[in-house]
Design goal:
9 helices, 6 strands
């Protein structure tokens, strides 16, 4: 139940994941968001990281959209991922180009003794020219590296957003639980007062009063525990958004709105679009280009040289030369064989990841859908029915047809159902966290 389970869930929160149907906030700063993998229905993007030393703010009322925006501004992991992507893009600009030419200047045949004569001035340039497709293979490998960096940045963004949504959902559930437990304690206090009056009039046994007092003591302990859970979950959320301890007052939002199962369901139509599968395919593509590059390097390059020579007798001449490598040690051929095996291994891993990620995602989605069905049962059926009964009981009490104790019993049952609804949301939050974790379990 929410009264006892929330502290345990809070301990697991950093590894838990969450979601929302809220409009996506804009990326901040100079960063640009990574493009999602083809076919991937991405969750709302987080903004790019901003200065980590931004002044801390306080929030009398915090909404999910604001929490997501602030978390993106105080996320060093997003900044690191973006820098890695920029590094891959910079390397792509140079990939496939010819090596820089070399310029040489020197003198030859300089005599040791005077009079000097016969020495020659030599000014030349040389250029290495690959004979195979190393340029195309190098560029392909650089493009594959850039795609892999983009997917890794996307995985970091998903994980950060997941943690923020999970922390927000748990804090919101703890806030509502605290309010319901306060209301239940108020009802118990009234029931105790009525029971004490009945004992004084001889209408109730003292043992029955002691039983109610014991139950009230248990409820008071649950109330204190719920308050501790609420404060702890707020601290977790404050750390994620870069706020000082105690900066968050209240949270505003709907529990179900922190989840986005319909978005995730769309991924089942194309399991290959799952981020984990896309990351494994990018690894296989990079291995393929590396194998091609190693194969191309088994063909030696040639080096062409051209030089101007000023002879000692004052005459001018030109030198031309050709240098050809001899691949006789077998080192490059062995490297090419190794990269072909690595390519094969990467392709097989990608196939296994695509199979397993789809199965894990499908299983986690089924569990989340089942938990959501229970939550909707409370929201759409049980709670409206209990609220209607409470309204009828209130009208009967006003008409003198119902005692105060009977009215309080109806109100206590409504409070219990609301707490049970929060328990159902806790189950959904855990199942949803496993679902989100399946998205990026092997994406990096």
């Amino acid at each position: 139940m929410i009264r006892s389970k929330l502290p345990l869930l809070l301990l697991a929160l950093p590894a838990c994941q969450s979601f929302s149907q809220a409009p996506p906030p804009a990326w901040g700063g100079a960063q640009r968001p990574p493009e999602p993998a083809p076919g991937f229905v991405a969750p709302a993007p987080l903004p790019g990281p901003a200065a980590a030393d931004a002044p801390a703010a306080s929030f009398g009322l915090l909404k999910l959209e604001e929490a997501l925006r602030l978390a993106g501004q105080h996320a060093p992991e997003l900044g690191a991922g973006a820098d890695e992507l920029h590094a891959a893009e910079a390397r792509l600009e140079a990939a496939g180009r010819l090596p820089d030419p070399e310029l040489s200047v020197g003198v030859e045949a300089v005599p040791f003794r005077t009079p000097r004569g016969g020495d020659e001035l030599l000014v030349g340039a040389s250029q290495e020219i690959p004979l195979s497709g190393t340029g195309a293979a190098a560029r392909g490998a650089a493009e594959a590296t850039r795609e892999l960096s983009r997917l890794r940045l996307e995985a970091l963004r998903i994980r950060l957003e997941t943690r923020v949504r999970a922390a927000f959902g748990q804090a919101l559930a703890a806030q509502q639980a605290d309010e319901q437990l306060q209301r239940r304690q108020e009802i118990s206090a009234e029931l105790l007062a009525l029971a004490a009056a009945r004992v004084d009039h001889g209408d109730l046994l003292p043992s029955a009063l002691r039983a109610l007092q014991a139950e009230a003591a248990v409820q008071a302990r649950e109330q204190r525990g719920a308050g501790l859970v609420l404060e702890s979950s707020k601290r977790t959320l404050e750390a994620l958004i870069g706020a000082a301890d105690g900066a968050i007052g209240r949270l505003e939002g709907e529990l179900a709105a922190t989840l986005g199962l319909p978005q995730l369901e769309a991924l089942l139509s194309d399991p290959a679009a799952l981020p984990a599968a896309a990351g494994a395919r990018a690894e296989a593509e990079l291995a393929r280009w590396r194998a091609q590059l190693a194969e191309a390097r088994t063909v030696p390059s040639i080096e062409l040289g051209l030089a101007y020579r000023r002879r000692g007798d004052g005459r001018d001449s030109f030198d031309a030369g050709l240098v050809l490598g001899l691949p006789i040690t077998g080192g490059r051929a062995a490297e090419a064989r190794a990269t072909r095996f690595e390519e094969s291994a990467a392709r097989q891993r990608a196939a296994a990841v695509e199979r397993d990620s789809a199965a894990a995602f499908r299983q986690a989605l089924a569990a989340a859908q089942n938990a959501l069905a229970w939550l909707e049962l409370y929201q759409d059926e049980l709670l409206p029915s209990a609220a209607a009964q409470g309204a009828v009981a209130g009208a009967r009490f006003e008409a003198g047809d119902l005692s105060r104790a009977e009215l309080l019993a109806v109100q206590a049952e409504l409070a219990r159902l609301r707490l049970d609804r929060l328990d159902a949301f806790e189950d959904l939050l855990v199942a949803w966290g496993e679902l989100r974790a399946s998205l990026t379990a092997v994406a990096d």
